[in-house]
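Worked example 3. Consider a protein that binds UD2.
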Amino acid sequence: MKTWLITGGCGFIGSHLADRLVRAKDRAIVLDDLSSGRADNLPPGAEFVKGDIRDAALVGRLMREADGCFHLAAIASVARSNEDWAGTHAVNLTGTINIFDAAARARPDARKVRVVYASSAAVYGDCPDMPLVEAAPTKPLTAYGADKLGCELHGRVADYVHGVPNVGLRFFNVYGPRQDPASPYSGVIAIFAKAVLEGRTPRVLGDGKQIRDFIFVDNVVDALVAAMRHDELRCDVFNVCTGRSTSIEALARLLAEACGAPPKIDYGPARSGDIRESLGDPTRLRSALGVTAGVTVADGMRRTLEWMRGGAPAKA
Ligand code: NAD
Ligand code: UD2
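Given these inputs, the predicted complex is written out as structure tokens:
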């Protein structure tokens, strides 16, 4: 039985990873400060430790028990990173360095704890070269994106200076059950789904022609697990995306259709700084990690709606 440390495991993505690891009969230790996550997201069998990734003593103790660490804890809101620049930086970048540092110190022998961490498509900023390949220029436009790029740079330090094998995953727009639809910072699928289920009309910000690469949370978990398993890969980053684009307008229509609601859309002013196009190239995700993000938006949306309606948990 392997032991995995999951930081941020009470959150949206982390709790799905905890489900997968517990189902595989592995030991999952979850470190989370519950700032946005919920302990009741965790499956029975996961071991929950309430605490902060910036607490070096606590992280050091947990890391010594772990065969590998999935580092997902972050303040995952772009808006908050702009409002509280220094505060989010302390968690999103300094917190990540603390994780790498603990992984370097956990064992006196040469075999360091492997770390797989969440980066983001936000590192690309508004790079126009679609689809985005990993080698595209990184020009983040937000503190959140800059800190995620900082995590990747310190991932290099972790490997080259401290011998900590690590892989960063650049998640595109992740959606699925447990993404909190009530949060103003939530993803557009959760926000639209809640609106349609409550009989309201989804509000598209801008002309609705902007595109995103929406990836279902189960496929993100596939990538996390594969990145941990492929230990020949170190100090690398991968897009975690589908390579399929959906416009926001089309998304609103699809959701209404899936709920049998009238295909009505409201339009509001575009968000300032909204990225026009975000579409990833999944070639390396497939060739190096062996992962194909096969869940379509229509299917993933159906599973998300099922969860929102309070039905049975969506099955993989
Ligand atoms: P989430 O907010 O649901 O989960 C983050 C978790 O981290 C929460 O449970 C929160 O309580 C915990 N946390 C925050 N600060 C902490 C701290 N100081 N110490 C311990 N725990 C702390 O977000 P998510 O959508 O599940 O995102 C997971 C990771 O993926 C994050 O690193 C995020 O930046 C990244 N990401 C997410 C998306 C997306 O579309 N959801 C896209 C790109 C990258
Ligand atoms: C996503 C990530 C963000 C960061 C960024 C990188 C989420 C929640 N955010 O931001 O963390 O990684 O990608 O580029 O995944 N929209 C509407 N109506 C609404 C809400 C949103 O039209 O009620 C539009 C919004 O203007 C945008 C699109 O939907 O054009 C997607 O918005 P989002 O907040 O889900 O995600 P994004 O891509 O801005």
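Take a moment to read the result before moving on. The domain at 3-174+215-243+280-293 is CATH 3.40.50.720 (Rossmann fold). Residues 85-105 form the longest helix (21 residues).
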